[in-house]
Design brief:
Layout lengths: L2 E4 L10 E4 L3 H37 L8 H14 L17 E6 L5 H19 L2 E6 L5 H10 L4 E5 L13 H13 L8 H12 L12 E4 L4 E3 L7 H7 L4 E3 L2 E3 L8 H11 L10 H4 L10 E3 L4 E4 H5 L1 H13 L1 H4 L4 H12 L5 E3 L5 E3 L2 E3 L4 H6 L18 H7 L14
Parallel strand pairs: 3-4, 3-6, 4-5, 8-12
Antiparallel strand pairs: 1-2, 6-11, 7-13, 8-11, 9-10, 13-14
Helix pairs in contact: 1-2, 3-4, 6-13, 8-11
Bound molecules: guanosine-5'-triphosphate and magnesium ion.
The site of magnesium ion has 3 residues, from loops.
Membrane topology: Single-pass type II membrane protein
Subcellular location: Membrane
Keywords: Glycosyltransferase, Membrane, Signal-anchor, Transferase, Transmembrane, Transmembrane helix
Length: about 425
């Protein structure tokens, strides 16, 4: 680049034209300064856009009442000042969705156990559809918990506190009798036998989680517990699957219950159904939960740490009255009734058997059991990261063989190789 100037010193003097040609060094300086100016301009514009996106993404999320946003954003800018990169952005799902949410009951100290769990659910499924996630706790979630979960989850995240009356002893419970049970169960080394919070948890999951106002707007939920994992990709909208196929209760693993925790649950259920035979579905699945046409409970239940189900089922008159009846009988405290047998008995009796679904294709882990599809079509097709030899589905202590038999479902070709 050349610059030039004209001089008019004396009119009678011959006109001289001076052309100043900058030195090579100066040219480099000008080029460098211009480049620096343009780069800075681009970075400022890009940085600004980044903050805008970040804020709008965060603004979508609810209950973000922690004060570390500013620091998080300024860290991002600092990084941006040094390097430039284009971040991959998961496309927002614009298809038709179900009214559905994930729901997790957790304590603040479950945060670490939830990190890889939530990440696996997001990576395998939810980042594609961005469903909401509701966290419930008997005390307030702290800012660290909220901040971490909100960052991991693609949908709107909500945090709720459980009302006291849903997490305490009902007035009619005889405290001495309840304490006596806990003492006895401790002596008998029954797992969680002496725990009060565990009993509140089981009662809450049986009769109250679906009554929390944060769940009012939804039709389906997927229950997720800390320290669980999804092994396979889910490439379809599982909530729409439930709705489109008229399913009300979906499970992965079924198993036998420890009968010492529920000695009178079945008889209490029979008393209820004799009072309310109208609630028992004509096409029920009694043959899954009883081997003698209802005389006794065979202890088979869906492992409720994983559930994809209809909230309207729990809201139904049949289930509401059933829970009320059980709660009045006091077995959540005088024994140690779990939400898994309670949910499973209700689903088996009050639903049409065709409304219950076994998800054989997901791959799931809750210690100590895995569901790992032994069928290559599922395991390889869904990019499952698990070992089929670990699969619990067809083992003796599982109830899946029974479930497949009573419903006349086709088992995978090689299922007998995985019985032991
Ligand atoms: N807020 C709250 N959540 C709880 C409490 N106890 C259990 N939970 C939650 O309730 C769910 C079930 O509890 P777990 O301890 O996993 O019960 P479990 O699956 O029968 O037993 P594990 O085999 O130990 O996993 C989990 O999501 C826990 O985070 C509690 O006292 N408060
Ligand atoms: Mg658990």
């Amino acid at each position: 680049m050349a610059s030039h100037s004209q001089s008019h010193e004396k009119s009678d003097q011959p006109r001289t034209i001076t052309i100043t040609i900058p030195s090579t060094r100066k040219i480099y300086q000008i080029v460098a300064l211009t480049a620096l100016f343009i780069t800075t301009l681009v970075l400022v514009i890009k940085g600004g856009a980044h903050i805008g996106r970040k804020e709008s993404a965060l603004a979508r999320k609810q209950n973000m009442n922690y004060d570390s946003d500013a620091k998080y954003d300024s860290d991002a800018i600092k990084y941006k000042e040094q390097y430039s990169y284009v971040k991959y952005k998961v496309p927002e799902y614009t298809g038709k969705k179900a009214r559905a949410t994930f729901v997790t009951l957790a304590r603040n100290n479950d945060k670490n156990g939830l990190l890889s769990t939530v990440k696996s659910v997001e990576d395998r499924f939810n980042s594609k559809y961005q469903y909401d996630w509701v966290f419930l706790n008997d005390v307030e979630f702290n800012d660290d918990f909220k901040k971490t979960m909100t960052a991991l989850i693609s949908g709107t995240v909500k945090f709720g506190v459980i009302p006291k009356e849903h997490w305490s002893f009902p007035s009619w419970i005889d405290q001495d009798r309840a304490a006596e049970t806990r003492k006895k169960m401790k002596e008998e080394k029954i797992i969680y036998g002496d725990s009060i919070p565990y009993r509140h948890m089981c009662r809450f999951e049986s009769g109250f989680f679906w009554r929390h106002p944060l769940l009012d707007e939804y039709e389906y939920y997927w229950r997720v517990e800390p320290d669980t994992k999804l092994h396979c990709d889910i490439d379809y909208d599982i909530f729409r699957f439930m709705k489109d196929n008229k399913k009300k209760y979906g499970f992965t693993i079924s198993i036998k219950e420890f009968m010492k925790t529920i000695p009178t649950l079945w008889d209490t259920t029979l008393n209820f159904t004799s009072l309310h035979p109208e609630f028992v579905n004509k096409n029920n699945m009694l043959d899954f939960i009883s081997n003698d046409n209802g005389k006794t409970y065979n202890s088979c239940h869906f492992w409720s740490n994983f559930e994809i189900a209809s909230l309207d089922f729990w809201r139904s008159e049949a289930y509401t009255k059933y829970f009320e009846y059980l709660d009045n009988a006091g077995g959540f405290f005088y024994e140690r009734w779990g939400d898994a047998p309670v949910h499973s008995i209700a689903a088996s009796l009050f639903l049409d058997r065709n409304e219950i679904h076994h998800f054989a294709d997901l791959g799931y882990f809750h210690g100590p059991f895995h569901q790992c599809p032994i069928d290559d079509v599922f395991r390889l097709g869904n990019r499952c990261a698990c070992k089929p030899k670990d699969d619990f589905t067809w083992k003796g202590y599982s109830c899946n063989t029974k479930y497949y038999d009573v419903n006349k479902l086709k088992k995978p070709e090689n299922w007998e190789d995985y019985k032991k």
